[in-house]
């Protein structure tokens, strides 16, 4: 898989600190679709550090013209880096569907993505000592 490396200027930091790390995307080789940022375009980017903490890896991004107030509010108030999100492959688009009797209880420090999750509005946040799945904003 070929990664794409980006230079970036931060206009507004909603959470975290990039600490001069390089921003890495999956480029054209991503099996979920091309992940290429256009030069001189403003994006809202959700990124996480790699396991070693050397890079910021793009998790998702959206052109700023497609960003709503709820998107920014969700990023500032509801994204919680202390919670681990577990993905059951059966909830992913294109995966075979199966009836679900619900997911097992996740650990206190994590959330499992529910079968009918909304990619745009979903979040996992530590509320009263337990990571909890929720939605904020429009689902589309």
Q: Unreliable stretches, pLDDT < 50, 5 or more residues?
A: 96-103
Helical content (DSSP H or I, runs of 4+): under 10%
Q: Overall 3D geometry?
A: globular
Strand content: 25-35%
The end-to-end distance, rounded to whole angstroms, is 29 Å
- Structural class of the secondary elements? mainly beta
Number of domains: 2
Mean pLDDT: 76
Q: Radius of gyration, rounded? A: 16 Å
Describe this protein with a few key phrases.
6% helix, two-stranded parallel ribbon, mainly beta, 140 residues, single chain, four-stranded mixed β-sheet, 2 domains
Question: Can you tell me about this structure?
Answer:
Helices cover 6% and strands 29% of the residues. By secondary structure, the chain is mainly beta. The protein has 2 domains: 1-67, no CATH class; 68-140, no CATH class. The chain has a 4-stranded mixed beta sheet, with no helix packed on it. The chain has a two-stranded parallel ribbon with strand order 5-6. Strands 7-8 form a two-stranded antiparallel ribbon. The relative contact order is 0.15. It comes from Magallana gigas. This is NTR domain-containing protein.
